[in-house]
Specification:
five-stranded antiparallel sheet; single chain; mainly beta; 183 residues; 2 domains
Amino acid sequence: MDLFLPIFTVQVSGNNPTPSSFALSDGGSQSVTLGAGQFNIVETPTSGFTTSFSGDCMQSTSNSQQATGTIAVGQQKTCTITNTEVPTTGTLLVSVVCADPLCTTSPFHVQIVPMNNPQPLVFDGRGSGSQTFTLTSGNFEVDMQSLFPGVFSGNCLQVFTLPQATGTISAGQHLTCTFTERR
């Protein structure tokens, strides 16, 4: 969870809105007084977030940052703005499968080459096991050190006959890469 709390800027137009512009943070609200008729609500785009509107307003089909509605004299309406954080990372599940009885206690070492900030950087185990790595978007490389040869499969491509695989991940993706040890 981020400690950074974004501020969202909102403008309201219509029949004499008061206030017509304000800022909100997560969970905030603002009452606006306005005369009868049609109104528009526009939120300034905030990097890393998508915006949706619900309640007593309808999101524009031509501008995702805008909603419209109508209000009559004496009515009270609620328009909810939801800002959803766009993921900046994806996950890569790396599994090591021991397909030979001799490798059940054999140690292995998996490393993600640090070109896109992998967390964690390495995974050590014996026999079989799996580890999920968080990666930023881009190319990745999985290096395998084992006493047994093997093959990669899944969302990664083996590099020739080396115990190495490559792939590409996008923000929000969940990929798998499996190394099967064999004699």
